[in-house]
Amino acid sequence: MSDFFDNWVVQVRKGVIELCILRTLATRERYGYELVKELSEAPGLGLTEGTLYPLLSRLRLSGLVNTRLEESATGPARKYYSLTPEGRRTLKIMNTFLETLNRSTAHVGGQS
Amino acid sequence: MNEWTPSARAVLEQHLNRHRARFVADGAEADEVIGDLRQHVEHEAAAPGFGIVTEADVRRILAKVDPDLLAEPALPPRAAESVAAPKSNAHPPRPMTAGSRFLLWLFGVILPAFTLGFELYTNACAGEIFDPTPTWLHALLVAWVPLTHAAALLWLQQTDRRVPVWLWWAQSAAAGVAGAYALVFLPLTPFAVVGLIFAIGFLPLSPLIAWVCALVLGSALRRQAVRTATTPPRFRWLGGVGALLLLVALSLPGVFTRHWAETAAHGTPDESTRAVQWLRRLGSEEELLRACYGQVRDPWGELWQRRWTSPEQIQTVFFRVTGQPYNAVKPPLSSLRGPGATVLRDFEWDNAVGGEAVAGHVSGLSLRSSRLDAMGNADDGWAYTEWTLEFRNEHERQPREARAELQLPPGGAVSRVTLWVNGEEREAAFAGRGEVRAAYQQVAVVQQRDPILVTTSGPDRVLMQCFPVPAGGGTMKVRLGITAPLAPLSASAVAFVWPRFAERNFAIRDEFRHYAWLETPQPAVNPPAGWNLDASRSNALHATVSEREAESAFPVIQLRRDSVAPSAWSRDERSPSPAWVRQHFNALPAQAPGRLALVLDGGRGGQAGFDAVRAALQQSGGVGELGVWIASDGVLEVVKTKGGTFAEAVDPLTRRAPAFVGGHDPVPALEAAWNWAAERPGSAVLWVHGPLPVLLGDLHAITQRLERTGGTATQLLDLQASLGPNRAAKEFANLPGYHNVPRLGSTTEDLTRLLRERSGTGPQFGWQRERTEQEPRSAVTASRHLVRLWALDRIELLRRARHVAEAVELAGRWQLVTAVSGAVVLENKAQFAQAGLTPVDPLTTPSIVPEPETWALLGVGLGLVWILVQKRPTRICP
After folding, report:
1. pLDDT tens, residue by residue, B204-236
2. Does residue B831 form part of some domain?
3. For chain A, which residues lie within 8 Å of any Cβ of chain B, measuring from their own Cβ?
4. Does residue B280 sit within a domain?
């Protein structure tokens, strides 16, 4: 693969990682380790913990994600992440936009 | 959890903290991300297979988590350093040192706790500057600071203990409270810094120091959170904001009270009235009361003050709001909580020393004993009362001036003033009003020696002031002699009236007792209940009257008078030429029927007078043109009758009864009533009211009418329904046409008698005194008090004719306190000589026993009888 493609992949991933996080949390709240494991196993995303935690922190600071601590019987306290109402609204808008984008890219250049 | 080697922990922290700048650059919170990653690594290391976690294990896990974490950060080192904690690049945040912990315990816990306890115990700040804990909720909020700091310090003792959520909020609130108090105490900081020399400066600096400690502890908690991989609540600063909002909410009554008081004092008449109405509904009376004494209750209220409002202006507002004089309420210092509040009283000054106002109560000063001895003669129409008072000052350091306005019997005057100096009686010098006051101020205020001053203070009132009542339980004993006519009730009865306190600056305990004794040759018509007759003395009545009962239990005593008693004579022995004073008892001519305009007090003190007026209108049977006005927040015109019975006014008066709240300016209502009354000759304005401790408006509208008409047209009759100050009467007292209605019974009885007299349905009697140089044919029988009463009449005539010097000379000759003269007792002859005054000869003063000259006359008489008996021819029995 060329460098050009590698860069392009990085750019695309950057654009969709937040969406993936929000989508994962939309079903139910997850604690950090669980979330990382789930997302890092998703093919193509190439997500590492070192990338994910800063993103989670940023989403929390943006008010899209909430956190809470819960003591765990098996180890240290778990930090649970969930979507805020604002996060849900944002996710809806992002989904709508992505569908529009998919449709548009499908029609660009005469492909259908 | 597995065991970690120290180097493994160090490596982890080193790698994580290296990327702090990257996390920040990504828009994340570095501490949070590092904490999350640390937890993630710990989670991985906790998996089975790890025994002791080593450096190599950490590197392996980090490589799996994110290989970038093992690499050098992409950002330039300078940028990385700028966001990294100075000592946290390679190591986790260090726990607090023992030295820091000690300082935080000392300045963050012990100092604020001690300051709060000191304030609650001594009220030092509350008494002198403002009250930092005006409510218990304020005290709890202040206590919150050292309590939270103590909890935080205890928590931080274990460096790996997670900071609980409640501690974040509590710490934030403590920082908010400490910050708010630091702001309030900021103006005191320069003085406090100077005060550090004496250690006392730590107290006002305590809020500022506590606030700094709160910030340091907040930082320590954040470091603990990093170490323990916890995230502080994102909006924890709301705890501080909440504490501030609570303080603001608590201060709202003070803020609004200050604002409305300012508007009431400085606003337009409409704004002022509205502000007073708001104060009545929602204002803080305690805040107003403290402002009356120049003190601040709530510092937060003070922050919003826009205009300087003097204590005198606030005193006026206080009366308008509450309807009672500020000095009739317990002073604010007396309500301070702490038992050590007495310490404060060392610094409580009395700014009215030597002045002409009674002013507010001073702490420590009280009446120790009160004894009234009276004698009189109903046929001759005079009475003499000696009131012996002893004051005691419990204040530890401040000598006090005892001041009181005394309500004298109608038409009475002070004719003797005595002060005990070192157990010896010293009599007063009587001289011009200005001379005696100047002498008093020189000796009392400048030299701090022992004088007493008595001057008139409105109709039938005197102001008595004596200084100093020594501190530390010292006492001061004085005696006032009062000569007064006996007020005629009918042809066969006269009234004896006791003097009383109208206003005072000292305390009288509720259980305090006055000892009263009255002797007259004539018996009482109806001996009052609770009064005892003493068989050893003819017609002696005596009682002990508690202060609580004083107003009702000091009744007017009606004495039987011989309706055909001849005129009384007394020799004027102090006249350069021989002269005598003769007194007649006359029925006075009926008054010209004119309009009667009633002005009633719609304020708090007006209820008693209002009820009495309704009863008197019903009972009097009076007929004539009657108008009624009520002085309220405005002028309320109730009714104007056209000549029917007075009883016709009762219904409209009942329907339009005011709420009787606050205190009101009577002048607009007096003006309206006067304008209506003055349309007919021989009219009168009868003003029935409660105490008027302050002047709320300009009196010129009334004083001008009285002066211009010279008392020949409309009269102003002033009837005060309950005891208390009357500032307007002081202004009106010496004007023609102004009459103080004598209080000879209940308000209803006095009003009924007055209404009957006004409508010509009730007879009027009075004493008429005249001086003659022609020797009377009958024997001179009456007391020298008769001459004193004549002298009072004469002095008033001379004053009105502007012959002041002659009036002062006559007052001095007969030792009388009048509108032109006063009495002062100084400590020694040198002080009298320095003031150009001469004390009276004790043999010339009136006394409760027959006066010296009377004894001499009796002696001469007895001698003559003896001589006659000796010269009689001896009869020889057959």
Report:
1. 888 999 999 999 999 888 888 877 767 788 788
2. no
3. 32-33, 36, 48-51, 53-58, 60-61, 67, 69, 75-77, 79
4. no
Structural domain span for residue B159:
98-249
Cβ contact B462:B406 at 8 Å = yes
3-class secondary-structure state, position B430: strand
Q: Over 70: is that where the pLDDT of B265 sits? A: yes
Question: Burial, A2: exposed, middle or buried (Cβ in 10 Å; 0-12, 13-18, 19+)?
Answer: exposed
- B820 Cβ neighbours under 8 A, 6+ residues apart: B432, B433, B795, B799, B804, B807, B808, B811
Q: Determine the length of chain A.
A: 112
Q: Which of B225, B249, B273 is the last residue of a domain?
A: B249
The total number of structural domains in chain B stands at: 3
The residue among B40 and B345 whose pLDDT is bigger is B40
Determine the residue of chain B that is closest to A73 in CA distance.
B1
**How close is the nearest chain B Cα to the Cα of A66, in Å?**
10
pLDDT in tens, B49-64: 667 888 888 888 888 8
Residue pLDDT, tens place only, A60-88: 888 899 888 887 776 667 888 999 999 99
Nearest to residue B738, comparing CAs of B719, B757, B725, B758? B719
User: Residue B825 pairs with which residues in a beta bridge?
Assistant: B452
CA atoms within 13 A on the CB side of A73: 0
Tell me the pLDDT tens digit for each residue of B311-329.
Answer: 888 888 999 999 887 877 7
Q: Give the mean model confidence (pLDDT) for residues B451-458.
A: 91
**B691 and B612 assigned to the same domain:** yes
CA distance A73 to chain B (A): 11
Q: Pairing between strand B715-720 and B684-689?
A: parallel
Q: How many CB atoms lie within 10 A of CB B372?
A: 22
DSSP state of B365: E
* Cis upstream peptide for B468 (omega within 30°): yes
User: Are B624 and B742 members of one domain?
Assistant: yes
pLDDT at B57 (0 to 100): 86
ipTM: 0.87
Residues B29, A57: C-beta atoms closer than 8 Å: yes
Pick from B831, B833, B839: nearest CA to B443: B831
What number of C-beta contacts closer than 8 Å exist between A and B?
69
Count of beta carbons in the 10 Å neighbourhood of residue B384: 24
Do the domain assignments include residue B614? Answer: yes
Q: What is the residue extent of each domain of chain A? A: 3-106
**Contact check, Cβ <8 Å, A58/B26:** yes
What is the nearest CA distance from B38 to chain A, expressed in angstroms? Answer: 11
* Count of beta carbons in the 10 Å neighbourhood of residue B768: 12
Beta bridge partners of A26: none
Closest CA to B182 of B104, B247, B88, B117: B247
Helix (H) or strand (E) holding B244: helix B237-266
Among B27, B229, B231, the residue with its CB nearest the CB of A58 is: B27
Under an 8 A CB cutoff, do A50 and B68 touch? yes
Is the domain of B604 the same as that of B745? yes
- Tell me the C-alpha to C-alpha distance, in Å, between residue B167 and each of B95, B151, B175, B236: 17, 8, 12, 10
Let me know if residue B45 belongs to a domain: yes
Tokens of B480: 């006032």
Residue B106 shares a structural domain with residue B237: yes
DSSP state of B442: I
- B75 & B112 share domain: no
Q: Residues B111, B232: one domain?
A: yes
CATH for the stretch A3-106 = 1.10.10.10
Contacts of A54 in chain B (CB under 8 A): 22-23, 26-28, 33
**CATH at residue B598:** 3.40.50.410
Specify whether B660 is located in the same domain as B746.
yes
Percent with pLDDT over 70 in chain B = 86
User: B68 to chain A: which residues are within 8 Å by CB?
Assistant: 48, 50
The pLDDT of residue B348 is 57
